Amino acid sequence: MTEDVLVVHGGTPLEGRIRVRGAKNLVSKAMVAALLGDTPSRLYDVPKIRDVEVVRGLLGLHGVKVTDGDEDGELVFDPANVESASTDQINVHAGSSRIPILFCGPLLHRLGHAFIPDLGGCHIGPRPIDFHLQALREFGATVEKRPEGLHLSAPNGLHGTKFALPYPSVGATEQVLLTAVMADGVTELRNAAVEPEIIDLICILQKMGAIIKVHTDRVIEIQGVPKLHGYTHRPIPDRIEAASWAAAALATRGHVEVLGAQQADMMTFLNIFRSVGGEYEVTDTRPPKLGDPGQEGGIRFWHPGGELNAVALETDVHPGFMTDWQQPLVVALTQARGLSIVHETVYEQRLGYTEALNKMGANIQVYRDCLGGTPCRFGRRNFKHSAVIAGPSKLHAADLVIPDLRAGFSHLIAALAAEGTSRVYGVDLINRGYEDFEAKLADLGAHVERP
Ligand code: EPU
Questions:
Q1: In the UniProt entry, which residues are flagged as the active site (predicted)?
Q2: Is pLDDT of 298 > 80?
Q3: Ligand 1 proximity of 98 Cβ (cutoff 6 Å)
């Protein structure tokens, strides 16, 4: 077995072209949605990442036959024989991902009961599931917390409800969608999240026969139907991965074309990228014609030379600046002249990774105050959730330990941007969300090796 460490010889600009596939944060939910159909579903462009493997394993345990389709990245789900799995079998997946919580509604519809193991996911704060459980209870589910996990049942079926989320949580919105589509009656969800991945999940559910209206002001109305069938779907591309490579291009003074990246889903990122001083060009897809093989579109990102500018930004729910874009971009901000301010308003503890950047020569201070923007719910609760980045700083190599997925990618970018040879430990965590990242690094000319 290779040691879980990557040796990174930094200081070389990343240059070249890579491709992103279906968004991790949609694909895993689309896989869960397949449980709701009474005929097979087909999903394209599924990246080979750990989260997909976890969901595939869980679906298999529940009797869903998952097979590879003809096209690379195509998965077919046959839910004809959905069945209960033992808690021991399910618990093998405990702690590996957040997705199991989304099995609640579909399993309650199909089996009348569900067991959910202890959740995993990135350690970026407490990540409670209170909104999920509150929503499920509103639908009529009973939830029993036991040491081994959650036991749910719906002795009287699930019924539509009117419900407002205390905060527009992505996962809780998905929980409501996956439960309401087959609940008896109409559900009205207020203060819902409306991320592009959620809209794409709604598209999938609509293909399956659901009736879902997205109103203005974050209100989603779902009219329950008794039956859904399978879907065929090509998911939206991964806008977090695309932005991560864009930030890597900027931090290493390189030039990276991300095939598959979509402008519409990344507008807020692109505005900040341009304000920092990065350049980009959107290349549209040219469909194949006789004598012309066509060309896949994407976005080219590059550092135009000279100095970068400091910016103030605040992470937020869609259409704001995504929290998952924050960590990779901060590495580039260490190279900008002046004081940049980052106010993290989605997670209370997502700035811990800045310590590693400081160890490499960055000058980042974190604060409990809501800096640079509107007061958020964390200011009153005394969390260090704002950062001031003074730059430019010359980054030097260091030994780094990856704490979570997105912070992990930012450590990697920092090591690539730094002078000298860094050792990045725990890199396998990056495989949770970035397909073939080592092959992509090689394609971009990075000097990295396994010891
Ligand atoms: N929250 C609660 N109670 C709940 C649910 C959420 O207090 O029951 C809070 C969270 O603690 C957090 C905020 O609400 O402070 C937002 O959490 P949300 O539910 O929106 O996040 P999530 O669904 O758990 C997904 C992505 C995350 C991404 C967030 C925000 C997946 C699998 N994960 O998480 O992605 O950061 O939405 O966009 O879709 C990643 O890909 O690395 C990642 C962490």
A1: 122 (proton donor)
A2: yes
A3: yes
Q: Would you kindly state where each structural domain of the chain is located, as residue ranges?
A: 5-20+237-449, 24-233
At position 350, the amino acid (one-letter code) is: R
CATH topology of domain 24-233: UDP-n-acetylglucosamine1-carboxyvinyl-transferase; Chain (3.65.10)
C-alpha distance from residue 71 to each of 40, 234, 259 (Å): 16, 12, 18
Q: 38: closest CA among 69, 101, 99, 82?
A: 82
pLDDT tens, residue by residue, 41-53: 999 999 999 999 9
385 lines ligand 1 (CB under 6 A): no
pLDDT per residue as tens digits for the range 231-262:
999 999 999 999 999 999 999 999 999 999 99
Distance from the alpha carbon of residue 42 to the mean position of ligand 1, in angstroms: 26
Ligand 1 centroid distance, CA of 21 (Å)? 21
Question: Is 122 an annotated catalytic residue?
Answer: yes
Q: Is the pLDDT of residue 127 over 80?
A: no
Pairwise CA distance, residues 2 & 5, whole Å: 8
Q: 305-351, pLDDT tens digit by residue?
A: 999 999 999 999 999 999 999 999 999 999 999 999 999 999 998 99
Are 311 and 336 a contacting pair, CB within 8 Å? Answer: yes
Predicted confidence at residue 251, as pLDDT, reads 98
Highest CATH level, class, for 5-20+237-449? alpha beta
Ligand 1: distance of its center to the CA of 101 in Å?
12
306 lines ligand 1 (CB under 6 A): no
Q: Which of 169, 430, 432 to mutate to test the pocket of ligand 1 (most atoms within 8 A of CB)?
A: 169
What is the full DSSP assignment across 121-173?
---SS----HHHHHHHHHTT-EEEEETTEEEEE-TT--B--EEE-SS--HHHH
Consult the annotation and say whether 346 binds a ligand: yes
Asked if the model's pLDDT at residue 416 lies above 90, the reply is yes
Rounded to 5°, angle at Cα 323 from 353 and 440: 75
Whole-number pLDDT of residue 125? 60
